[in-house]
Amino acid sequence: MLRQKGMRKKPKLHPAPPLPTILRRTRRHIMRKFILIDPSITELGGHYYEYAARVLDAAGRHGFEPVLGANRGAGCLGAGPWRVVPAYRFGFFEPGPPRALRWARRTAGVAFRRAHGRQADAGIESGTGWANAWSSMCFGRKRRAFFADSARFFRAVPLNAGDLVFLPTVAEADMLGLADLFRADRNTTEATWHLLFRRDVPQANPGLARSRRHFEQFASRSSGRQVFFYTDTEPLTAEYNRLGRVSFCTLPIPIANSDRPPGGEIGRGGGLRHVVYLGDARTEKGYHWLPRLVSDAKAAGLPVRFTFQSNFNVPGGEPAAAEARAELASLPTDFGVTLLTEPLSSQGYLRLLLAADVVVIPYDAAAYKARSSGVFAEALAAGKPVIVPEGTWMAGELRRAGGESGVIYRDARELAGHLARIVCDYDHYRAAAHDYSRTWSHYHSPDTLLRQLAARSAYFGSPTGLAAHAILI
């Protein structure tokens, strides 16, 4: 049955055993397939693929046969360690209004939130009725497509008693498409379903009321199914729990194995500390603050050089990000700036991370108040000092680590001053970051995530115990 807020849980008599023990207890009942479905995976590399690959690898290590369900454009993945089933039409942000409208709304929203805080959501929603009409139409189309694609997928990969279904990047339209599948396919009662949400809850009406209505609709149409809800940060879990219809808990972030060489000396140029920005060049991620950081660091005579990942997320880039990249590209060579204007492969990303001395994360604080950051999580796992904004999940986690693995800033105009603090006492910050990396990596690992899902499925699931299939959408 659907777990609802306020329902009493069964008493937990014993701690969840290690995953291999659960597997041994249920060996004769299961086929041990792990089916991972993410409609946003279209190619090798990128956030969605890396997340899936880490969890699938962990499943394989623990005796499952991994299967990957992906976007219909993922046929290029070809032969690999997993069976690939390209079944889904739309990724997380698809379909959408025309690109120009989508870009205009996003850009206006970031600027308005920066000026007025997260309560600006109400102004953004109420002031763009014509855009909301487009959004409503796209929402319905996405919901119908998710239902049809899922029905087709599960005909190819039938559910068996005890199967585990995990959706790691859920949009509300996907959730309602899943509810439609529940009503159409009785076989969905065989599985436990695990839904992970990673985007903010709207903070004001009409968006807040709409989200509550969507969860009410899902709950009313999911009778007889065992469904569990998650986010990947404690602040975001609190936001979703305030919706009041279902209960959320927090999952770890599956970071790649952190047993790596220190890497601080890799790519060192002339004894300069290497300052790195990772991720695409976006306004929401503060890319437009980087020219000021470079100029102020140069004026202060800091012994640093910079490498900035600078590929755009949309053709031509957002205006502020495009202007910032042009400004950085025009700087003289003695400013020590290297721009990487093409997307990085998984190995290229890892090499750049390991070559960093400091990772700068100048994200928009309002946008990342509760949301997780893969760059931040990976930097801590790699033992790299970080610079992060106040009022974010990142700042809270840095304080939990003791506050010595990096610095927290309040004003992005003062980034160079905070960088100077790390550079002047680098050995201290580096040692603290390195010491905390193992604690961080032990929890934020694919194996920990897999154990948590498997333990819940074994405890709340059917008498056969652990899932025969684990399905990640």
Poorly predicted residue ranges: 6-17, 19-29, 118-127, 261-267, 460-470
Beta-strand residue percentage: 5-15%
Number of helices: 16
How far apart are the first and last residues' alpha carbons, in Å? Answer: 20 Å
Helix content: 40-55%
The count of DSSP E runs of length 2 or more, i.e. the number of strands, is: 14
Class derived from helix and strand content: alpha/beta
Shape: globular
Mean pLDDT: 83
What is the chain-wise order of helices and strands? HEHEEHHHEHEHEHEEHEHEHEHEHEHHHE
The major pleated sheet works out as:
8 strands, parallel
Physical arrangement of strands within the biggest beta sheet = 3-2-1-14-4-5-6-7
- Radius of gyration, rounded? 23 Å
Record the SSE blueprint.
Layout: H1 19-25, E1 33-38, H2 47-61, E2 65-71, E3 83-88, H3 99-116, H4 120-126, H5 129-156, E4 164-167, H6 172-184, E5 192-196, H7 207-220, E6 226-231, H8 234-241, E7 248-250, E8 273-277, H9 290-300, E9 304-309, H10 319-329, E10 337-340, H11 346-355, E11 358-360, H12 374-381, E12 386-389, H13 393-400, E13 406-409, H14 415-424, H15 426-443, H16 446-460, E14 469-472
Parallel strand pairs: 1-2, 1-14, 2-3, 4-5, 4-14, 5-6, 6-7, 8-9, 8-11, 9-10, 11-12, 12-13
Would you kindly provide a brief summary of this structure?
The chain is of the alpha/beta class. It has 16 helices and 14 strands.
Q: What would you say this structure looks like, in words?
A:
By secondary structure, the protein is α/β, with parallel strands linked by helices. Helices cover 42% and strands 14% of the residues. The chain has an eight-stranded parallel sheet with strand order 3-2-1-14-4-5-6-7, sandwiched between helices. Strands 10-9-8-11-12-13 form a six-stranded parallel sheet, with helices on both faces. Strand 1, helix 2 and strand 2 form a beta-alpha-beta unit. It is globular, with a radius of gyration of 23 Å.
